[in-house]
Amino acid sequence: MGNILAFCEFQDAALRISALSNIAFARTAAAAHGGEVIALLVGAGAQAASAGAAKYAGKVIVVEDGALPHYLAETYAPIVARLAKENGATVVTATATALGKDLIPRVAALLDAGMASDIKEMKGTKEFVRPILAGNAYSTVEITTPIVCVTVRQSEFESAAELGAAGAVTTAAAGTVDALGATFEKLDATKSDRPDLGDAKVVVAGGRGMKNGENFKVLEQLADLLGAAMGASRAATDAGMVPADWQVGQTGKIVAPNLYFAVAISGAIQHLAGMKGSKTIVAINKNKDEPIFQVADYGLVMEWEKAVPELISEIKKLKATR
Amino acid sequence: MKILVPIKRVPDPTQKAKLKDGHIDLAGASWIVNTFDEYAVETALRLLENGEGPTRIAGSEIVVVSLAPEDAGKEIRNCLAMGADRAIHVVASDAELDSLAVVKVLAAIIAAEKPDVVVMGKQAVDGDANQVGQMLAGKLGWPQATFAASIETDAAAKSLLVGREVDGGVEFKRVPVPAVVTVDLRIVSAHAVKNGVTPATHAYGGDGARLPSLKGIMASKKKPYEQKKLADYGVGAPVIKETVVTLPPPRAAGQLVADVSTLVKKLADEAKAL
User: Fold this and answer.
1) Percentage of residues in chain A having pLDDT higher than 90
2) Is A182 an interface residue toward B (CB < 8 Å)?
């Protein structure tokens, strides 16, 4: 018997889409552990997002406190660890976002809990399958500590559906908040109206062959036509063509959209690790020998300068007929 | 300033993964220092030197620590050849370790060494777990700055301003020392590390960590290299066990299309993706 404490990120009075994958895993885990899903919302705006969270979890705990104006691992981890113990949790989980990856191992240390990162599947109550070696192998790990910590790979768990009845919302105290001297200074946000890379159904990604940031504009036109998120290879982000948080790959975002366009991307294994779970992969590259063609469902050997504007015009035509 | 850099040796990621008895077959593997850890050594050097010299700031020290099998000396010495000052090698096999065991050993070494900063890779490219830095900070009760793409020290080197790559942009977080910093890829770009000593105009050579110089390699053979036993740290049996490893099924072969209109037609009719 044990409950599942699902740390959930939220924005604008609702759970983030990425958190719904966490809830989906938490429900599976709750069934296996004979407990219930408890969604935990911490920080500024948690109360406002709690009604939205209650659509997905039978129990929601809110921790909102003036001493928690911004996320810091130092202040959040003790709260999560304490609430895990107070609520009989045997699993503490979050989506493997930048925040989840920063927070949950620190929580695990405070709980002396073994941890499985970025899991794709639950096999037994404390047995999980996770990618290793840039996704070139899957390791099944069994953890023997009383509490286990987990981060969930968003692309491997379908978003949870709403429950029939709203869950119960309670509040918990933050307790003593000590940032250990750490301070949040600022966020240089990448402004975008496009969907989050991790949530998008379609991703348009460019690589080194795009040559410069200006050339990405044509890919952005394609993305906007398809309601897609923008992505990039490490070569393109390292060269400063596009923001770092567009990077798809082993060390960037892991995505699995319905449709992935890899334009002027060679297909290094680190990039493939981040996108080979996509349902349909289209590669556009002028060099037919690039490894990207080995994972592509549809390959077009053509310069992007010619292919992408044509693609935009053909898709517009197709849309006009519908 | 004294910096401790935990490093891991990993199988060369360009090798194809093969299985033996349900686990990754490492017989005959070639080994490298985990790329992110190599970047951590580079980061430590950039924090503690005048890049124009290069001369090291007086009184600074870089200690590399590794939990690795007996034969990992070559990879550990490679970090000394890059410029780290001494090494502590805790002899251990992978089967004896998990992230909590590694953290326990590192915490004990840190208690004895008292570094100002721990700089390490954000993840090892074999296990891809991305846990140890955060766990270590939690265990020590130190602040953490993970996924660092830039670091700037204040004048007294009492705090670090770290640019962290997060979802939606770059977050700037200030941490007082002692602290744990885990580094991301872009920490080795031209102006990512600012220590107030290296002139702001100085651009490091671009992509990646420095290669050891011949002089560095010669010097590394004489640098202090301390070997320890895992048993010295009272580490129990691992609580995370790998039961089996499988390889993902290969993707079905794709097709080349002749032109854009065929591509769009197939995406719409065959893949139903448009």
Assistant:
1) 93
2) yes
pLDDT of residue B52: 92
ipTM entry: 0.96
The fold of A3-171 is: Rossmann fold (3.40.50)
How many Å apart are CA B87 and CA B61, to the nearest integer? Answer: 11
Contact A187 B146 (CB under 8 A): no
d(CA A168, CA A264): 50
- Give me the pLDDT at residue A250, please: 86
- The parts of chain A modelled with pLDDT lower than 50 are none
Burial of B272 (0-12, 13-18, 19+ CB in 10 A): exposed
Q: Which of B97, B117, B110, B140 is nearest to B43 (CA)?
A: B117
Contact (CB, 8 A) for B118 and B5: yes
pLDDT score for B42:
97
Query: How many Cβ atoms are within 10 Å of A66's Cβ, its own excluded?
Result: 8
Residues 6+ apart with CB under 8 A from A32: A122, A124, A125
Whether the upstream peptide bond of residue B11 has omega within 30° of 0, thus cis, is no
Mean pLDDT for the stretch of residues B83-111: 97
Q: Do A73 and B146 touch (CB under 8 A)?
A: yes
What residue ranges in B75-231 does DSSP mark as E strands?
Answer: 86-91, 117-121, 144-153, 159-166, 169-176, 179-183, 193-194, 225-229
Pairing outcome for strands B159-166 and B169-176: antiparallel
B245 vs A contacts (CB less than 8 Å): 132, 137-140
Chain A, chain B: beta-carbon pairs less than 8 Å apart? 263
**Which residue ranges make up each domain of chain B?**
2-246
**Contact flag B168-A187 (C-beta cutoff 8 Å):** yes
A286-312 confidence digits (pLDDT tens): 999 999 999 999 999 999 999 999 999
A300 vs A293: CA distance, rounded Å = 9
User: Would you say how long chain A is, in residues?
Assistant: 322
Q: Which of residues 94-123 of A touch B (CB under 8 A)?
A: 97-99, 101-110, 112, 114-118
Asked if residues B36 and B122 have their Cβ atoms less than 8 Å apart, the reply is: yes
Q: How many helices (H) and strands (E) does chain A have?
A: 9, 18
Q: State the burial class of residue B71 (Cβ atoms within 10 Å of its Cβ: 0-12, 13-18, 19+).
A: exposed
> Mean pLDDT for chain B?
95
The domain limits of chain A are: 3-171, 202-320
**CB contacts, 8 Å: A136 with chain B:** 16-17, 247-248
User: At a CB cut-off of 8 Å and minimum separation 6, what does B159 contact?
Assistant: A181, B153, B174, B175, B176, B177
Whether the predicted pLDDT of B9 surpasses 80: yes
Confidence of residue B167 (pLDDT cuts 50, 70, 90): confident
Nearest partner of A272 among A244, A300, A294, A246, judged by Cα: A294
CATH number listed for the domain at residues B2-246: 3.40.50.620
- Cα–Cα distance for residue pair A112/A309, rounded to 1 Å: 55
Superfamily of domain A202-320: TPP-binding domain (3.40.50.1220)
